[in-house]
Amino acid sequence: MAVAQQDSSSGTSLADPHVSPAAPQSPEVASLLRKMATIPHTLNYQGSFTYQHKDNPALQSFRIIHWVEEGVEYERLQHLNGPEREVLRSGKSIGCESLGDQLLQGKISQFGANLARLDQLYKFEIRGPERVAGREATALLALPLDQFRHSSLLTIDNETGLVLKSWLVDETARPLERYQFIDLDLSPDIESLREPKARLHRAAAPQVADCNPTEVKRVERWALGWIPPGFAFVGQRQVRNHIDMLMYTDGLTTFSVFIEEASGAIPEGVAQRGATLAVMDSLSYANKNYRITVVGEIPVVTAQKIAQNIDGIQ
């Protein structure tokens, strides 16, 4: 059951003294991270990629189409296996940098010196050149300096900053999920991007984080007594049936907390699909019962500790 606990970390996560120190990022690493955070948002491209996670060894295939119209990003994700399905996203202005983008670029000075830098959270290693989807790229290993996040091996396109291949692994080096582009076209026909949608399709919710934030905001109504070092609050909204959704990022990894008033028995436990984990817990506050769900690509001990340290704000 969630423990009622409150401290000054409700809404931001500051650098933790227990995080291992690390050497500053090399210029090559910093350049790759800046490319990842900026250039892909401005591109028109389409490509196919394969995806696999630990709970299903079968390869799944997708096509992604990304384009920019009048300064706004659009994206279509098409399933190439099974029933014809498609996800449509209309995104942010290309001049809009989320907090995650700014953390990736190292542009955190306006948030104060206490917000952890990526090089305080991960050890980055350039693993050398690689060729993916016929393109020259660089493999970058991100090793966490604590037990609260997973390791990533990213292969980043040298020209565009697109992540052409990604492996997310747990503390035993077991792959949790992986994807890899098999083809990429940087000059698609824009008119063809407007072709009819798949018979089964859905529109994804637009981005909710602030555009170009100048300060780290605080959560309304709820207090998180503990969040992993280096994670910062990036947004809050209500989803179906008045469920509060709180979102956090450290620049590379994200997690969300869902808080819903509930009656009757509240299930508690852990569910996982690939790298995405869901920890369910319960909270009693102000004579009401709430269902707590923490969802993200984080270790189970991290999600459980988050869920067990939530309280309401008076």
From TrEMBL:
<dbReference type="GO" id="GO:0032885">
    <property type="term" value="P:regulation of polysaccharide biosynthetic process"/>
</dbReference>
<feature type="domain" description="MucB/RseB N-terminal">
    <location>
        <begin position="29"/>
        <end position="193"/>
    </location>
</feature>
<feature type="compositionally biased region" description="Polar residues">
    <location>
        <begin position="1"/>
        <end position="13"/>
    </location>
</feature>
<dbReference type="Pfam" id="PF17188">
    <property type="entry name" value="MucB_RseB_C"/>
</dbReference>
<feature type="domain" description="MucB/RseB C-terminal">
    <location>
        <begin position="219"/>
        <end position="310"/>
    </location>
</feature>
<keyword id="KW-0732">Signal</keyword>
<dbReference type="InterPro" id="IPR005588">
    <property type="entry name" value="MucB_RseB"/>
</dbReference>
<dbReference type="InterPro" id="IPR033436">
    <property type="entry name" value="MucB/RseB_C"/>
</dbReference>
<protein>
    <submittedName>
        <fullName>Transcriptional regulator</fullName>
    </submittedName>
</protein>
<keyword id="KW-0574">Periplasm</keyword>
<feature type="region of interest" description="Disordered">
    <location>
        <begin position="1"/>
        <end position="27"/>
    </location>
</feature>
<dbReference type="GO" id="GO:0030288">
    <property type="term" value="C:outer membrane-bounded periplasmic space"/>
</dbReference>
<comment type="similarity">
    <text>Belongs to the RseB family.</text>
</comment>
<dbReference type="InterPro" id="IPR033434">
    <property type="entry name" value="MucB/RseB_N"/>
</dbReference>
<dbReference type="InterPro" id="IPR038484">
    <property type="entry name" value="MucB/RseB_C_sf"/>
</dbReference>
<dbReference type="Pfam" id="PF03888">
    <property type="entry name" value="MucB_RseB"/>
</dbReference>
<dbReference type="GO" id="GO:0045152">
    <property type="term" value="F:antisigma factor binding"/>
</dbReference>
